Amino acid sequence: MQARGYQADLSRPPNPGARTIAYLTNHPPSELSKGTKTHFAPINTTDRTDEIEESSPMPLLSAFTVAPTIETSRLILRAHKPGDLESLTAMWAEPAVLRYVRKSPYPREEVWTRMLRYAGHWLWMGFGFWIVSDKTDGRFLGEVGIHNFERDMEPEFSGTPELGYSLIGAAHGKGYATEAAKAVLSWFDSHIDLPYTNCMTSPDNIHSQRVALKCGYEYLRQSIHLGSPVAIFRRRRVVASSP
């Protein structure tokens, strides 16, 4: 299936070892979007060797175990590679990138751990993060994606996929984040059958909030994460109409 309005490289067959697609939701029917048609694939427990408890994390599997390549008018979104370590380490040391995240740069070792986490996220959940690069010259611009980090927050936040994006300072203010995020959301809507996603920003990060709003998110509530206030936004899944 091709994301509407974007070119997705789906020519490679799914990983032969990939397991059957299955989805769970912890959200009661009353929380589903009214007037929006959603589908949840049943889980064939007779074909599963592992036990699934009712409290299992929100998404289980999709046919994708590696990020597919997505092209937009100006960008290429692709899977992370070991060679991206230096570019990512440099990005996570930029003051413009860290301003609303933390005070000190991420150590190289911690950036490497993030990359491994992204790879595992795709393997376990069938969605995750992409590297963002310039379509013209291949220049590294940042990363974007959707993840489920099972955040320990009040009110409850775990079990809901979350949009995230970070670009190098030189790429700020050019619409790249919005372009990349819209491409990811289009892909996600086409492949992951869940009713909504969240987006979390600092209450002071107006630029990030503008990106979220342009992508269809609406302000949901204020919350606390790791002792700091955060603003939570929510977006309903957009289901493409049949031709």
UniProtKB/TrEMBL annotation:
Residue stretches making up the N-acetyltransferase domain: 75-239
Swiss-Prot/TrEMBL keywords: Transferase
PROSITE patterns in UniProt: GNAT
Keyword Transferase among record annotations: yes
Alphabetized Pfam families for the sequence: Acetyltransf_3
Any one GO molecular function term: acyltransferase activity, transferring groups other than amino-acyl groups
PANTHER family named in the record: GNAT FAMILY, PUTATIVE (AFU_ORTHOLOGUE AFUA_3G00765)-RELATED-RELATED, N-ACETYLTRANSFERASE DOMAIN-CONTAINING PROTEIN
Listed name of the protein: GNAT family N-acetyltransferase
Species annotation: Labrys okinawensis
